[in-house]
Design brief:
β14 and β15 (258-262) form a beta hairpin. This protein has 3 domains: 5-97, Nucleic acid-binding proteins (OB fold (Dihydrolipoamide Acetyltransferase, E2P), Beta Barrel); 103-262, P-loop containing nucleotide triphosphate hydrolases (Rossmann fold, 3-Layer(aba) Sandwich); 276-334, no CATH class. Strands 10-9-8-13-15-14 form a 6-stranded mixed beta sheet. It has a 5-stranded mixed β-barrel with strand order 1-2-3-5-4. Helix content is 24%, strand content 24%. It contains 11 helices and 15 strands. It binds guanosine-5'-triphosphate (GTP) and zinc ion. Its EC number is 3.6.1.-.
Amino acid sequence: MARGGDTGTDDDRVRVRPNRRGSRPRTKVRPSHDDAVPAMVLAVDRGRYTALTDDGTAVHAMKARELGRGSVVVGDRVGLVGDVSGRPDTLARLVRVADRTTTLRRTAEDAETAGVERVIVANADQLVVVTALADPEPRPRMVDRCLVAAIDAGMDALLCLTKADLADPAPFLAQYAPLVVPAVVTSVAEDRIEGLDELHDRLAGRTSVLVGHSGVGKSTLVNALIPDAHRAIGGVNAVTGRGRHTSSSAVALGLPDGWVIDTPGVRSFGLAHVGPEDLLRGFPDLQEVTEECPRGCTHAADAPDCALDAWVATGRAGGPGRARLDSFRRLLAARSGEE
Ligand SMILES: Nc1nc2c(ncn2[C@@H]2O[C@H](COP(=O)(O)OP(=O)(O)OP(=O)(O)O)[C@@H](O)[C@H]2O)c(=O)[nH]1
Ligand SMILES: [Zn+2]
């Protein structure tokens, strides 16, 4: 939570920096909001926020004008003032946003807004990529793009492979072995979901974002994990004025121990903002080697004199090195184009 009080920043230096010219610090004068109530944003719907205060009250709020442009997204830690009772027809004011620990982003790729970066979710620490093993067929390219987005965001990734009753997970898992991404395999059996306990364990104590294409069984999992998902979001109904949450944006759902953020509208990630160096952060073993690369090396398969090629060719990479490099380059290539 922001501690900055009157400066509206987490950065203590802003307050203690000597003020040589005796003028005011170069920050906007604004009410102190020292009494702002800390909360987490659970849902955003047409400019209205639902936030859960740290003492467990779901409050509806709108953003204070002084916060200016820039989005407040699901997962943001915010400060609320005004009516924070959470009673029907009340509206608090969201007056500050804390620095984010992680930011899951996408770059718009349609012609009109191309290049515009959007934050989808803040402060989540795990991206769960839900993929069916069959019906619909798995889309490795889409999975790769999700993994790139997770690395870029600074989040851990988890593969959740559904419908194991329809196909053997082994071939799919083999493709991802060099990436050392953990995986959970699920299947619906009569009145229960095999693998659900393991998934639960993986989600415990974490804030996890679930992404997946239509039909992969994501809703089935969310409903099993959070039996009354719509009540769990504490009054989103009052925000939308409708019977249920119909927005296509992300929504945070509470687990007994942790959060699941469902992203009904997110089918893919525009990755134009992710550079080779961003991706390398997910491959510390390769990152070290690239220190020997020529300046501006793209590390792609056709990059001249890329040190990664020599690393493999000379045997320095060891047994799994070639597969690691291939996987890295596959993700590198997955950044461009859509799926
Ligand atoms: N055979 C099999 N079918 C499953 C499994 N999990 C879900 N399904 C079925 O797959 C279909 C799609 O499941 P949903 O949970 O609605 O999928 P979704 O990913 O939420 O899709 P949208 O609601 O379109 O976003 C439904 O008919 C489910 O009953 C599974 O493990 N095995
Ligand atoms: Zn290189």
